[in-house]
Amino acid sequence: MATAPVSTVIGRKSPWLPPAKFDFYAMDCHRVTGADKLARTLAEEVLRAGTAVDGTERSPMRNAEARITLGVTAARAGDPEQALARGERALEAERRSVPSPRMLGRELAVELRRRYGAEPAVREHLARLPALDATAEQGPQRTPGSTPR
């Protein structure tokens, strides 16, 4: 049974914005405003829409941001292990654009530091972030033989 995009369920069907993009942008808005339940629901929808049946990611950047959103909401809900797992998975994504994941990664880092800064796993994760920033400064990651977009 197919499910309707969340954008139609919440009554915001837009003639100008595809449902997948609406869900993506709404996810960000709800995360930033602290509406974690809606942000989590939309992040799950973004991941569902951005992943093919065989597990191939159709929208790796959107999926990475959805995972960071799930990490932020998990941190706020008191689950640092899930927050770290989601953040690590998001950072593994092949990036075509660097600023957005870095910005969101910092948002997750703030939540983790503020709530769980004394935990060793959190400190280890936070210690790796500057190295990731340095790698990101080198530009988008490409696989050998790929062409820039």
How does this structure look, described?
The chain is mainly α and 149 residues long. The protein has one domain (17-136): Serine Threonine Protein Phosphatase 5, Tetratricopeptide repeat, CATH 1.25.40. Helix content is 65%, strand content 0%. It has seven helices and no strands. α4 (60-76) packs parallel to α6 and α6 (99-116) runs antiparallel to α7. The longest helix has 18 residues, at 99-116. The chain is globular. This is Tetratricopeptide repeat protein. Residues 127-149 are annotated as: Disordered. Residues 138-149 have a biased composition (Polar residues).
Tell me briefly what this model is.
The chain is mostly helical and 149 residues long. 65% of the residues lie in helices and 0% in strands.
| Low-pLDDT regions | 134-149
Rg on CA atoms, Å = 16 Å
Question: Which class best fits the helix and strand makeup?
Answer: mainly alpha
CATH topology: Serine Threonine Protein Phosphatase 5, Tetratricopeptide repeat
List the helices and strands and how they pair.
Elements: H1 6-9, H2 19-33, H3 36-49, H4 60-76, H5 80-91, H6 99-116, H7 120-136
Helix pairs in contact: 2-3, 2-4, 3-4, 4-5, 4-6, 5-6, 6-7
Question: Which tags fit this structure?
Answer:
149 residues; disordered C terminus; 0% strand; mainly alpha; Serine Threonine Protein Phosphatase 5, Tetratricopeptide repeat; 7 helices; globular
